[in-house]
Amino acid sequence: MECVPRMRSVPFSRQRAVKRMQITEVRLTLRTEDRLKAFVSITFDDAFVVRGLKVIEGNSDLFVAMPSRRRKDGEFRDIAHPINNETRDMIEKAVLDEYTRQLELAEKGGMEHQSGIPERELVLAEDYED
Length: 130
Description:
Elements: H1 12-15, E1 23-30, E2 36-44, E3 48-57, E4 62-65, E5 68-70, E6 76-78, H2 85-107
Antiparallel strand pairs: 1-2, 2-3, 3-4, 5-6
């Protein structure tokens, strides 16, 4: 059996100039549970969707949990996550800003469709539950 050397990948940023991704849509479904405050999906560049994010009330503040799956050993493992703090901060700000906006609308008694999404395209909370 011939041994094939493993190719070492070159970071994409070294290969060519990188265009920064933008969050173009945040969809949010408010929840009324103790710690779970919302299910979230985000769209990057009107081309790539990440579903299964959650707004969680921590011990001191709200935070955004990345989508995860339970492994056979019972441990949860992120299936998608930012690889640097700058991107994590961008995601958290966009999600928490939309959460605050939706919460204020709900408290005023008027629910508005998120980000102008037609009602038939709204993502239901059941779509996120395992």
